[in-house]
């Protein structure tokens, strides 16, 4: 395999295979630093606060939220869509970038896939709590039952159940299958007997024989094939929760592809937020290089611009349609009582990513980090704008309402943030953050060359 | 083998025969059943769009791969470049619509007393329609011309400057195309059904354009290979083109389905009015389009070997091209001629006429430069890559 010399190396610092294993396994073998304890204390308390608020909601009922008759979906569904979207970067990296032979994915796929799982867990909580009686959640699964009831197959909410459970299953399998050879590596390195036994169990008896590798490769390919359509299907179905209705601002045909693009956009923003810190703290700068950050920034500007075009298309079509309600819905978004949410969304999602056209900014870690936070905020507001501003003006002016979240809803959101980051912090202590075996696969073609050995 | 394509007399003769058949069919069609003005203009619009899409895709293919730092496509470079040479003629043909506006676009009539169309008059009026048309074509022709020029200059001097400029031009082209392709589909296609609107429409048309372009490039490769050129194009390149055809036929279906499902589900009369005549008056065609654009390429290209077999891929590309032509036909016809429309001698005659002209322009352009570009820093990657 030939790689043009003008391409930037993907692995810096003239690494050997042995060095790669040592570098990536180091965080698991060493003791966690103070920063880690401080981090987990913070995220853990956020999680506990969230759990308390979830408990309160279940005990008292949904009435503890700020919802009312007109605005039946508020923060809960906003958070649900936001978290689901964040998960998309992982699937995109593991499936679509694999199909496009993007070698730089090898350094980031493991952590992005882990992030997908954690984000989907956070997302899944919200419909569950929103049901009011989560103990009856199994009612959403279609199976012959003594109640004599079937689920409503016409409802996009049910399609969500299928889409998301499939998504979670495939992502989990894909992530775990990728982990097996690396768990084998860790098993062979850990000293304590107990750890060896646990990692041994988790590695399914991986020996690294040719036969094992062959099976590993073929199952990975099949799972990648299954994951590719999931990138599109999951968020398309989430968008249909809105778009199949007849509510102005919700019912628009561009929603499925536009939601998918927005999901990848927000997902990459979260990957950048996490990895810019992780690479620094775990000394992985040679593996997650500035070049990787730049590539991710390019995906951000591509997907962000697609989202921008979708916003403009919606605006134009609202005018062009000549439908009074459509036109009002969009005017109201931009100039009504929630104008601030609309303009936060516009400036964070459409205007600020355009700065990435400058190469200097694309390669600046500080700028990228700040921008990624902006996008996280912007994409949250996108869902808030879509849900709340479309609902709060009903067809009947007598039903017009305003929505304000209560501390309970805010607390649950903070709780899911806590859950997400807690899981991520645990993950970096237990499993290799970078796919060791996959990075080794690109070392020969894309590693930084030793200037001395080139002369020979 | 020669690195330069020679546009032989024999090929020219064949192309002229296609044109000749086209003219003959049109004459026959004229005597059998004289087509109305509206039928003539509809045929012109459909073929204008179809061949414009192929030419435009030449620009999209180059730009997309350049900004993605792709290496594999560099050996193919000259084919999409040649496709864009048809753009000036496509522009001239599109401006002909000035004489057929009233036969195609209901909104162009005076004194309609239609409040919905009056509401759109700020956008849908004849002067602005042609101003926009001029802007789109200026951008497309200008940028593809610069891309081509840059690529030819790179052949003469080995300098990274051209590589960088190519990427810069490609980025501008992509931005311009992203905005103009949606607007063009609203102007030229969606406004035929003046009352109807769909936000997804522009992207749906774009994916069709992508499929048309990929299928055409596959056919060009196939033709040049048969003639003994392009020995540097190997199975891996073919495989990648096959993957594109396969993947984007799924993507096309995805967008088609998204649009249809959401309109069907919400059941708002203003929106379903678009699909009702298509489904009820053109039932067979309606489903044929789905079979040709999705079912056949999906099952036909699923296995690895099918994508690596150029002969089979050629068959699939022809199927998709037919399917996409019918798709454009379906976008245009119900809003213009309506249920009495038929595909007959005149329609085939027009396709032959356009096809002959298109091939003549593209092959003349292809013969002007070596088939393999030189000095691209990523070119070497295109010869050694594995899938």
UniProtKB/TrEMBL annotation, chain A:
TM ranges:
35-59, 79-100, 112-141, 161-186, 219-238, 258-278, 299-320, 340-358, 365-391, 411-437
Indicate yes or no for the key word Ribosomal protein.
no
GO cellular component terms attached to this protein's record: plasma membrane
Tell me how this protein sits in the membrane.
Multi-pass membrane protein
Q: Does the keyword Lyase apply?
A: no
Major location (coarse):
membrane
The alphabetical list of record keywords is: Cell membrane, Membrane, Transmembrane, Transmembrane helix
Location in the cell: Cell membrane
Q: Which family does it belong to?
A: Belongs to the NrfD family.
Protein name, entry field: Hydrogenase
Q: Which organism's genome codes for this protein?
A: Ancylomarina longa
Automatic annotation (TrEMBL), chain B:
- Organism source for this protein? Ancylomarina longa
Descriptive protein name: Quinol:cytochrome C oxidoreductase
Keywords assigned by UniProt, alphabetized: Membrane, Transmembrane, Transmembrane helix
Q: Which residue ranges traverse the bilayer?
A: 12-32, 44-61, 82-101, 121-147, 168-189, 201-224, 244-262, 282-301, 313-337, 343-363
């Amino acid at each position: 395999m030939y790689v043009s010399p003008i391409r930037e190396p993907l692995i810096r610092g003239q690494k050997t295979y042995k060095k790669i294993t040592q570098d990536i396994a180091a965080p698991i073998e060493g003791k966690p630093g103070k920063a880690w304890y401080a981090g987990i204390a913070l995220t853990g308390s956020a999680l506990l606060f969230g759990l308390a608020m979830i408990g309160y909601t279940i005990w008292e009922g949904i009435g503890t939220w700020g919802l009312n008759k007109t605005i039946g979906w508020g923060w809960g569904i906003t958070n649900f869509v936001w978290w689901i979207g964040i998960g998309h970067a992982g699937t995109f990296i593991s499936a679509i970038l694999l199909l496009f032979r993007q070698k730089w994915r090898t350094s980031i796929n493991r952590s992005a896939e882990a992030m997908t799982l954690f984000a989907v867990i956070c997302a899944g909580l919200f419909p569950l709590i929103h049901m009011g009686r989560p103990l009856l959640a199994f009612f959403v699964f279609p199976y012959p039952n003594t109640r004599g009831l079937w689920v409503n197959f016409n409802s996009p909410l049910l399609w969500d159940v299928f889409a998301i459970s499939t998504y979670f299953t495939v992502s989990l399998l894909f992530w775990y299958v990728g982990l097996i050879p690396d768990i084998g590596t860790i098993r062979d390195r850990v000293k304590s007997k107990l750890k060896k036994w646990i990692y041994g169990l988790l590695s399914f008896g991986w020996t690294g024989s040719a036969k094992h590798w062959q099976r590993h490769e073929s199952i990975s390919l099949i799972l990648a094939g299954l994951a590719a359509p999931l990138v599109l299907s999951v968020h398309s179905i989430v968008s249909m929760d809105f778009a199949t209705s007849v509510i102005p601002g919700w019912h628009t045909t561009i929603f499925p592809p536009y939601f998918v693009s927005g999901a990848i956009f927000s997902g990459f923003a979260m990957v950048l937020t996490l990895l810019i810190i992780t690479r620094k703290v775990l000394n992985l700068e040679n593996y997650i290089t500035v070049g990787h950050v730049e590539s991710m920034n390019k995906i951000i500007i591509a997907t962000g611009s697609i989202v921008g075009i979708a916003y403009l298309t919606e605006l134009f079509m609202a005018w062009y349609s000549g439908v009074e309600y459509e036109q009002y819905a969009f005017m109201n978004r931009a100039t009504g009582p929630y104008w601030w949410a609309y303009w936060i969304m516009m400036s964070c999602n459409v205007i600020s990513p355009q700065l990435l056209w400058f190469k200097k900014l694309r390669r600046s870690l500080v700028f990228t980090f700040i921008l990624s936070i902006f996008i996280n905020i912007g994409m949250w507001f996108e869902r808030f704008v879509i849900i709340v501003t479309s609902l709060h003006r009903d067809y009947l002016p007598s039903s017009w309402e305003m929505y304000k979240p209560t501390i309970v809803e805010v607390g649950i959101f903070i709780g899911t943030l806590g859950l997400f980051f807690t899981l991520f912090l645990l993950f970096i202590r237990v499993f290799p953050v970078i796919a060791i075996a996959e990075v080794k696969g690109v070392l020969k073609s894309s590693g930084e060359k030793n200037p001395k050995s080139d002369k020979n | 083998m020669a690195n330069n394509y020679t546009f032989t007399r024999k090929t020219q003769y064949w192309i002229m025969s296609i044109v000749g058949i086209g003219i003959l069919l049109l004459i026959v069609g004229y005597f059998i059943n004289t087509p109305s003005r509206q039928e003539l203009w509809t045929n012109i619009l459909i073929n204008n769009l179809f061949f414009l899409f192929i030419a435009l895709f030449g620009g999209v293919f180059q730009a997309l791969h350049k900004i993605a730092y792709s290496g594999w496509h560099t050996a193919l470079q000259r084919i999409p470049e040649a496709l864009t040479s048809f753009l000036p003629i496509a522009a001239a043909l599109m401006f002909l619509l000035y004489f057929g506006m009233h036969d195609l676009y209901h909104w162009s009539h005076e004194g309609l007393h239609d409040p919905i169309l009056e509401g759109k008059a700020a956008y849908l009026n004849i002067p602005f329609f042609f101003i926009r048309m001029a802007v789109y074509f200026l951008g497309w022709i200008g940028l593809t011309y610069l891309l081509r020029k840059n690529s030819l200059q790179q052949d003469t001097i080995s300098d990274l400057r051209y590589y960088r400029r190519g990427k810069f031009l490609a980025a501008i082209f992509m931005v311009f195309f992203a905005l103009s392709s949606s607007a063009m589909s609203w102007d030229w296609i969606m406004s035929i059904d003046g009352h109807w609107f769909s936000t997804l429409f522009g992207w749906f048309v774009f994916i069709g354009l992508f499929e048309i372009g990929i299928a055409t490039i596959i056919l060009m490769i196939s033709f040049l290979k048969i003639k003994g050129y392009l020995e540097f194009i190997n199975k891996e390149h073919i495989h990648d083109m096959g993957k594109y055809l396969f993947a984007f036929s799924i993507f096309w279906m995805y967008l088609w389905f998204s649009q249809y499902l959401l309109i069907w589900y919400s059941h708002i009369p203003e929106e379903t009015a678009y699909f009702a005549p298509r489904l009820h008056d053109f039932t067979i065609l309606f489903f044929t389009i789905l079979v040709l654009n999705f079912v056949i390429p999906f099952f036909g290209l699923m296995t690895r070997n099918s994508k690596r077999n150029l002969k089979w891929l050629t068959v699939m590309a022809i199927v998709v091209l037919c399917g996409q032509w019918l798709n454009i036909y379906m976008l245009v016809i119900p809003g213009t001629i309506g249920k009495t429309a038929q595909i007959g001698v005149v329609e085939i005659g027009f396709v032959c006429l356009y096809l002959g002209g298109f091939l003549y322009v593209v092959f003349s352009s292809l013969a002007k430069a070596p088939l393999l570009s030189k000095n691209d820093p990523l070119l070497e990657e295109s010869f050694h890559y594995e899938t």
